[in-house]
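Chapter summary example.
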Amino acid sequence: MEQAIPILPADDLRVAREFYATKLGFHVLWEASDDGTRGLLGVARGPIRITLDCPMEGHGRNACVSLEVNDVDAYYAEWSPRVDVLREPRDETWGARTFDLLDPFGNTIFVIGTGDSPASRIRTANAVVLVRGQLDAADEFFAPDYVAHATDRDLRTGPAAVRGFVGTLRRAFPDIEADVEILVESDDRIAWQRTVRGTQSGAFMGFPPSNRRVVWRDMVTSRFRDGRIAEDWVVTDLAERLLLARKG
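The structure predicted for these 248 residues follows.
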């Protein structure tokens, strides 16, 4: 789906996050900031989306709007010969591809190519649910009858299974980080790899805390239905890495 999203000025992203996430019940979709105070913050509650902008150097300071499009490079090829480009297309760390335009009145137009592709949904789900710990957002990314097929068991309780597993994982690895690499993508299925890093400061899978930095990889094939993940097949080397961390 392509849509326009309002961008509201903010003096401090920490204050914006406290107001919209803590007080109004929005969850953080993504954040682009070097210091946690200046940059861009995207929040959502159901279908409502807002972007908060504490302007960084080079950004316009008049009115702003964010345009979410399915193919950012196609729009750039169409528009760039005709208008002033503030910033050429680039891949953001939070999973989108973007570029910026300036209209004749000094208003900034942020073009965000997140789209509704499986790859975009995978990257955003990992950033929002796993890394940021926004567990309530699981319903937006996982189907009500979601099933995860792991090596030793199947999880069949929908988004609740995701919330339970991720909550336990984050308690054991509170500083968790994840990088997603897309391997193969089709209309409704996607194969991808996740490299996860974190310090094991809590018990997990029967392993007591090692207080060591652990790096593991998950190989995942996801099946999508109606824009949400309906089924995952997961192979991971986490248990092996936890055992190695115990041995020191």
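To summarize the output: The chain is about 25% helix and 40% strand.
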